[in-house]
Every structure is written in C-alpha cells, then in structure tokens.
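User: Reviewer 2 asked us to show a designed sequence for the structure in our supplementary figure. I'm pasting the structure tokens here. Could you produce the per-position amino acids so we can include them in the response letter?
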C-alpha cells in the first residue's frame, strides 16, 4: 500500500485563526478528565460503562450509524485486515468492532479484545456468541502483553479516555510489531465531539496535535479515512486514520 503523504489540513495551515465555535466547544466539553486524578477518572469511567449507560452502548452505536459505517471501512477493505494474524481490539466495549473482525479477518487470525470494564466484556461475549476472541480486562495505558505482540490493532473511541494521548499511543506502539497497522478512531475537538465528550465523560483531540504526537512515537499516519463522502465534506465523524508503526 502506498503511503498517503497528505498532511492533515490543519497541519498545513497551523497559523489559521481559531474558529468562532471553539470557545463554545470548550464550554460544552466535559472537563472531568482534567479536574481529577487519572485513577479517580478511570474508576468513574469504569462505573459509567459498567452501569446502564454502558448497557445501551451497542444500541447507541447502531443508532449513531457507527456500527454500519465502521463495518463498511472493513468490508470495502479501506482498512484491509487480510494477512494480519494477531489482532488486538482495544476498548472493545460491547464488541462492536470485534464483530467486524470476526467477519472480515482471516479465519486463522487470533483476535484479542481488551476493555477496562469487565462488565462490557461480559456483554460482548453475550452479543457475539463466539469463543474465538480472548477477552482481557486491562487498562489501555498498561496492557499485559509483551512488546511487538500484534501485527494489527483496532482502537475505537477509547484514546479519548486518556488525559495525555502520548501515554496511550506509546503503549499501543509498544505492543505493535514493526510495520503493524492500526485503525484509530477517536473524538475530535469539534462541536459534535464536544457533545460526545459530555455524554461519555471523555476528552477530545485536535487532529494536528494528534498527528504530530503519533509521528514522534514512530506511528505514521498512512491515510485519513472517512465514513462517507458527507462526513468528509463536513469534516464530521471524528478522527479516523490508518496508522503504521515504523520498522
């Protein structure tokens, strides 16, 4: 696959003035992650996903179209799972992405699902009706795997539950083998992202800053992905990129 060298639009024009809605976005965005210790924040997030809100996650993902649109990325091979033999899904939740991995990954590929909430993993097992994945309750910032364990990683809407992206990205890079690829989806600092933040008590990320942090850690953005043409035109749907770890 050829590397897409196109730099994110915000990277090409770093001096552009702040959009008028930025102040509103900051007002709407939940700031819990900045007000309490990471340990306390992590415990509160676990409680959210262990409870009724987490029980509705699969339904919410379907209603927001994240499930069918995310599946399209894999079905159309815009993120191609073929050839990957050890897959890690981080922040598996109710198994939304794992369900896609079961359908589109090679039949002999090993699939590992990780989530901070053991209750979410229980729900994933019930939904998927598959003994193929192994389910492990673990923190994104301290995963119980040796270095270079996986040749493919999917990380859907979990990095925003880490105060500093460097901490999460560094751990993801550690468990990725050289030339391993990652599908990263995370909440952007847009108006829609601010409301997502308020609902799920997460933070948002600036596309340019996340790009630069990834690069510093040896994680190269191969290409930006969009759920649909409409999402691309309106810069909606959050940050969705294919990343490769440098050899």
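Assistant: Here is a per-position design you can include in the supplement:
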């Amino acid at each position: 696959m050829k590397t897409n060298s196109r730099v994110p639009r915000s990277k090409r024009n770093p001096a552009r003035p702040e959009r008028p809605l930025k102040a509103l976005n900051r007002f709407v965005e939940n700031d819990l992650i900045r007000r309490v210790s990471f340990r306390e924040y992590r415990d509160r997030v676990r409680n959210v996903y262990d409870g009724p809100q987490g029980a509705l996650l699969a339904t919410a993902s379907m209603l927001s179209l994240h499930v069918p649109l995310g599946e399209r990325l894999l079905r159309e091979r815009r993120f191609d799972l073929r050839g990957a033999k050890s897959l890690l899904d981080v922040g598996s939740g109710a198994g939304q992405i794992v369900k896609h991995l079961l359908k589109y990954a090679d039949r002999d590929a090993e699939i590992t699902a990780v989530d901070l909430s053991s209750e979410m993993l229980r729900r994933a097992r019930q939904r998927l009706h598959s003994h193929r994945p192994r389910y492990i309750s673990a923190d994104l910032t301290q995963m119980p795997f040796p270095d270079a364990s996986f040749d493919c990683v999917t990380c859907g809407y979990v990095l925003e539950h880490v105060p500093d992206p460097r901490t999460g990205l560094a751990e993801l890079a550690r468990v990725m083998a050289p030339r391993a690829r990652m599908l990263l989806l995370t909440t952007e600092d847009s108006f829609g992202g601010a409301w997502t933040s308020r609902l799920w008590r997460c933070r948002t990320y600036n596309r340019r800053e996340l790009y630069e942090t990834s690069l510093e850690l040896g994680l190269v953005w191969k290409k930006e992905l969009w759920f649909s043409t409409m999402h691309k035109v309106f810069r909606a749907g959050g940050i969705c990129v294919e990343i490769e770890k440098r050899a």
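For the response letter, you might also mention the following. The chain is about 45% helix and 20% strand. The two ends are 15 Å apart (CA to CA).
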